[in-house]
Write a structure and sequence with these properties.
The chain has 115 residues and is mainly α. Helix content is 80%, strand content 0%.
């Protein structure tokens, strides 16, 4: 694997992790109670979550300079693994067996694509 390809993969996976964390921020913000509608949408969690999404967009565009789009699409599916894991670690949500089986299928698919 050449250095540029590895760089692109790491940038893209970093972006997927950041996007997953931003989803956790938005979920956390959605579960809180607010005094008014303005506070519900203009608070550090919501603004931070969307700012992270914006940053990830730029990371993904940059990563596409190094990797093919087909590989980027396959690796982007790893977000379906990171979000439940971060939900479990940070929000203490339960991961059902169905989700675990789905995560295993995604991991298998990514590994099959990379083989």
């Amino acid at each position: 694997m050449d250095r540029e390809l590895l760089t692109g993969i790491l940038i893209l996976l970093g972006g997927v992790v950041i996007a997953s964390l931003s989803q956790i921020l938005l979920k956390y913000a959605a579960e809180r109670q607010y005094d008014d509608k303005r506070s519900e949408y203009f608070n550090p969690f919501v603004i931070g979550g969307y700012a992270l999404f914006l940053g990830v967009t730029f990371l993904n565009v940059y990563a596409l300079r190094f990797i093919p789009l087909s590989l980027a699409s396959a690796l982007d599916a790893s977000g379906q693994i990171f979000v439940p894991l971060f939900s479990w670690l940070i929000l203490k949500e339960r991961i059902s067996w169905e989700k675990m089986k789905g995560m295993a299928v995604i991991i298998f698919g990514i590994l099959l694509f990379l083989a």
